[in-house]
Design a protein that fits this description.
Strand order of the largest sheet: 4-10-9-8-7-5-6
Number of domains: 2
Shape: globular
Oligomer: single chain
Strand content: 15-25%
Number of helices: 14
Order of helices and strands: HEEEHHHEHEHEHHEHEEEHHHEEHEEEH
CATH class of the largest domain: Alpha Beta
CATH superfamily of the largest domain: Type I PLP-dependent aspartate aminotransferase-like (Major domain)
Helix content: 25-40%
Bound molecules: ligand PLZ
Structural class: alpha/beta
Radius of gyration: 21 Å
């Protein structure tokens, strides 16, 4: 497959104006009049084009993308295979509604999801538009299939912004404040956060399970919904054994294990799915983001005997599995397979973790470097303590942005810098990004 970037966009970071430049500033002024103030104002540099790991703004600045639009463009920007697939599909037909008159690409995506998600049991899928919608549907299916009401989530969880998924999400500001009342029958238990709780995986699981059994009752639990590596909550990698223990508990107690792989899935962590690293086989897997290379598509994939209990017409939506998004997913998955982007993610992790651990030795504000593959984070603390240092994260993001590197923060305490580079980032681009990040950290401590 031809994966060379066929545009005139350069492959290096290059700034031609201050950031944001004059054209971006003009757009930003227009935005303020007509775009709701409720949307996060990230870095107001407006993008015109992109290729590979480079974003080009309206002023002609070339920026290095270490965020992939929050883990979405894992195959990179402007991938010819995706452009071709999408263009051909747009010309053929853009929409019929799969529930009215179906088409093959939807089936092909479900075949891929059945083949790629963990376990060799029979699986069926339903496709949706966003991660939150996938989670909503996974919860509907789990309640129907088990006949039980309770959904268990963990501290620091992020599952979306709709009414049900807000209730599943842990952090109040900015996601939930004044947006309630929230959906009932959602119970939050402690997670595994090795840097802050010092527990082994089995110990953390025993703590969570004790809480479920005492305050909810095992027989009431429909499902545990959990991100195998927590994303928005701070790129928290649970201690080894935590996920397998929770998964075993659900199986033993007639509940379902739902892995939210929306951020961690599709090669991001160096495997197709983050649960693959511990051999966990979820009953249901939710996917989105990296699945379709930037087109909106999400999936709920589960054991056929669970998924197929839903009555005909019980699942759906006008756009879910839209043909343009579906062919984008097929091109994305083919690209991941052809370029072995899981291996590439492991390589990115090897390079980045080595660099960041070196950096950690020289500074007092990096409490922990963690992650897996190309899901990479540094948790920032007040010097010599474990007290979260959100100001440092803000300053580092700002420094990176000013130097044309798109890095983003996350974490319940807002003190984690996360890197989610496109998996096609070149070694030179990665080295450049890590140098800017190191300079940012050194500039403050
Ligand atoms: N589950 C694990 O990471 C989306 C949110 C950005 P949607 N994460 C980015 C923001 O501030 O809104 C996410 C996730 C996990 C579910 C979701 C929700 O996916 O496609 O944003 O609905």
């Amino acid at each position: 497959m031809d994966t060379t970037v066929q545009t005139t966009i350069g492959t290096q970071r290059a700034l031609v104006t201050e950031l944001p430049g004059p054209k971006s500033q003009e757009l930003h002024a227009r935005r303020r009049k007509v775009v709701s103030a409720g949307l996060t104002n990230g870095f107001p540099v407006y993008i015109d084009r992109a290729a590979g790991a480079i974003l080009v703004d309206v002023d002609g600045n070339h920026l290095l993308d270490l965020g992939s639009g929050i883990a979405v463009t894992s195959i990179g920007h402007a991938v010819p295979a995706l452009i071709d697939a999408v263009s051909e599909q747009v010309a053929a037909f853009t929409h019929t509604c799969f529930m009215v008159t179906p088409y093959e690409a939807y089936i092909q995506v479900c075949e891929e999801l059945a083949a790629l998600t963990p376990g060799d049991h029979e699986k069926t899928s339903a496709l949706f538009n966003s991660g939150a919608e996938a989670i909503e549907n996974a919860v509907k299916i789990a309640r129907l299939a088990t006949g039980r009401p309770a959904i268990i989530v963990v501290d620091h969880a992020y599952h979306g912004r709709t009414n049900l998924t807000m209730a599943l999400t842990a952090k109040n500001m900015p996601y939930k404040d004044h947006f309630g009342p929230f959906a009932p029958e959602i119970y939050r238990v402690p997670t595994s956060y090795p840097y802050r709780d010092g527990l082994s995986g089995p110990e953390a699981a025993a703590r969570a399970i004790a809480e479920i059994e005492s305050s909810v009752g095992a027989h009431n639990v429909a499902a545990i919904v959990i991100e195998p590596i927590q994303g928005e909550g701070g790129f928290i990698v649970p201690a080894e054994g935590f996920l397998p223990a929770l998964s075993a508990w659900t199986t033993a107690n007639g509940a379902l294990f739902i892995a939210d792989e929306i951020q961690s899935g599709f090669c991001r962590t160096g495997a197709w799915f983050a649960v693959d690293h511990e051999g966990v086989i979820p009953d249901i897997v939710t996917t989105a983001k990296g699945l379709a290379g930037g087109m909106p598509l999400a999936g709920v994939t589960g054991r056929a005997e669970i998924m197929n209990q839903v009555h005909e017409g019980g699942l759906g939506g006008t756009y879910g599995g839209n043909p343009v998004a579906a062919v984008a997913a097929l091109a994305t998955i083919a690209t991941m397979r052809d370029l072995d982007l899981a291996a590439r993610a492991r390589h990115i992790g090897d390079v980045a973790f080595a660099a960041l651990r070196e950096l950690q030795k020289d500074t007092t504000i990096i409490g922990e470097v963690r992650g897996r593959g190309a899901m990479i984070a540094m948790e920032l603390v007040e010097p010599g303590t474990t007290t979260p240092n959100a100001a440092a994260a803000k300053a580092i993001v700002n420094f990176c942005n000013q130097h044309g590197v798109i890095a983003i923060s996350c974490g319940t305490y807002g003190n984690v810098i996360r890197l989610l580079p496109p998996l096609v980032i070149t070694d030179e681009q990665l080295a450049d990004g890590l140098e800017v990040l190191a300079a940012a950290v050194r500039s403050i401590g």
